[in-house]
């Protein structure tokens, strides 16, 4: 529950920061996506291990800034794992099962370039805060269960496309790296609601 509160507060702060940059006549939108989570492989003193894919919910608030460039926008985004990535070889096999629970909050500069009357190509770059908790079922009687928590801030890049369904709704798909150093990314799809 504590992580959910933190992620909600972080999302609100990111959205508020993006909203404060908006001129009165700026176009605004909200993206709602479901993403497949890919967490990169790790090597530790206890051995190497990899994660199965998980699922995440991704919410984005964006503001178009034609005064900067006609295709330019800024976005604030938050994501939360809903099906945690899992590993069955954690701590070099000492723990037969581990889960990677995470949330992210980030800000992006976005270019969305039309290539067809209904299709735009999107490219994004920004910074993302990543907060994670790893829990394992390796629980020695004298030590308790092994777990690890951490957070960091990393560059993030993204590419994708939108398809115009009507004046207010676009369908979209995107590939976003939220931790370039470790190879963590979302492959996501959803809808964009414009207002």
Question: Quick summary of this structure?
Answer:
This protein has 1 helix and 11 strands. The chain has 195 residues and is mostly beta strands. The protein has one domain (2-194): Beta Barrel (Porin), CATH 2.40.160.
Helical element count? 1
The SSE string, one letter per element, is HEEEEEEEEEEE
| Tally of DSSP β-strands | 11
Biggest sheet, strands in spatial order?
A: 1-4-5-7-8-9-10-11
Helical amount: under 10%
Q: Quickly name the level 1 CATH class.
A: Mainly Beta
Strand content: over 45%
Predict the CATH topology.
Answer: Porin
- The count of domains is 1
Cα(first) to Cα(last) distance is 32 Å
| Overall body shape | elongated
Structural class, from helix and strand content? mainly beta
Overall pLDDT score: 84
Unreliable segments of 5+ consecutive residues? none
Largest sheet: 8 strands, antiparallel, barrel
Radius of gyration: 19 Å
Characterization of the model:
- By secondary structure, the chain is mostly beta strands.
- It has a single domain, classed as Porin.
- It is 9% helix and 60% strand.
- The chain is built from 1 helix and 11 strands, in the order H-E-E-E-E-E-E-E-E-E-E-E.
- The strands form 2 sheets. The chain has an 8-stranded antiparallel beta barrel. The chain has a two-stranded antiparallel ribbon with strand order 2-3.
- A hairpin with a 4-residue loop joins strand 7 and strand 8 (119-136).
- The longest helix has 18 residues, at 2-19.
- It starts with a helix and ends with a strand.
- The mean pLDDT is 84.
């Amino acid at each position: 529950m504590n992580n959910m509160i933190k992620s909600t507060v972080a999302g609100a702060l990111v959205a508020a920061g993006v909203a404060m940059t908006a001129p009165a006549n700026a176009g605004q939108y909200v993206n709602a996506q479901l993403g497949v989570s890919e967490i990169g492989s790790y090597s530790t003193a206890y051995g190497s291990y990899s994660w199965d894919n998980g699922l995440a919910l991704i919410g984005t608030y964006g503001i178009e800034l034609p005064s900067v460039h006609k295709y330019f926008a800024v976005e604030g985004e938050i994501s939360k794992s809903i099906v945690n990535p899992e590993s069955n070889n954690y701590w070099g096999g000492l723990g037969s099962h581990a889960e990677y629970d995470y949330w992210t909050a980030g800000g992006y500069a976005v270019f969305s370039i039309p290539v067809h009357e209904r299709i735009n190509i999107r490219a994004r770059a920004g910074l993302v805060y990543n907060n994670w908790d790893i829990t394992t079922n390796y629980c020695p009687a004298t030590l308790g269960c092994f777990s690890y928590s951490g957070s960091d801030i990393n560059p993030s890049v993204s590419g994708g496309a939108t398809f115009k369904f009507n004046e207010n709704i676009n369908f979209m798909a995107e590939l976003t790296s939220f931790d370039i150093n470790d190879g963590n990314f979302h492959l996501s799809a959803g809808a964009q609601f414009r207002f």
